[in-house]
Design brief:
mainly alpha; extended; two-stranded antiparallel sheet; 2 strands; 60% helix
Length: 173
């Protein structure tokens, strides 16, 4: 998730409007919402001092606002936290082992991601069982979804579209 989306996510989480956040940051009243809209749409990128100020207002780390550097452990953790926010990825413990799992409460994300993860797990198992080489596995991963022939995943319609279709079908009865 890009910085503009993160700013909007945390601003909304705090129940603030763009204008309110802009005014707290010291932008002039008439332009405060416009300036925040520019940051959220990424027409402008906030300088690090402004990111620090926003992080303080939101009571979060600057790592939570910026696009994480996944080459560091802290950056990787903030990437995982973002995946939790956006896709419902959860951390659990099963038989004493830490694992990442999908949240079933968001059906759309769950179904799509489950099928994609299942295809990944199947290819990983083939590698471990010696059915494919490391090169074949890497080729599958780095060209995904082009080389995926599991046909386990498909784009799921949004909840709104699904609800609309169900209501229209009920009308026809």
């Amino acid at each position: 998730m890009a910085i503009g989306q993160r700013i909007k996510f945390f601003r909304t989480r705090k129940g603030m409007t763009q204008k309110q956040l802009g005014e707290i940051l010291g932008f002039l009243g008439k332009t405060s919402d416009v300036r925040m809209a520019q940051y959220e749409s990424e027409a402008r990128v906030p300088k690090i001092d402004l990111v620090k100020e926003m992080a303080g207002i939101f009571d979060v780390s600057t790592h939570a606002l910026t696009v994480p550097n996944i080459d560091t452990y802290i950056g990787l953790m903030h990437t995982l936290f973002t995946l939790e926010d956006v896709y419902g990825l959860k951390i659990s413990e099963i038989d004493g082992e830490l694992c990442l799992r999908l949240d079933k409460s968001n059906r759309d994300n769950y179904t799509s991601l489950f099928n994609m993860f299942q295809a990944w797990q199947q290819m990983s198992a083939k590698l471990e069982q010696g059915e494919i080489t490391k090169e074949e596995y890497d080729q599958w991963r780095y060209k995904y979804p082009e080389l995926d022939n599991s046909h386990h995943w498909a784009k799921v319609p949004s909840k709104a579209l699904s609800d609309f279709l169900v209501s229209e079908l009920k009308k026809e009865k």
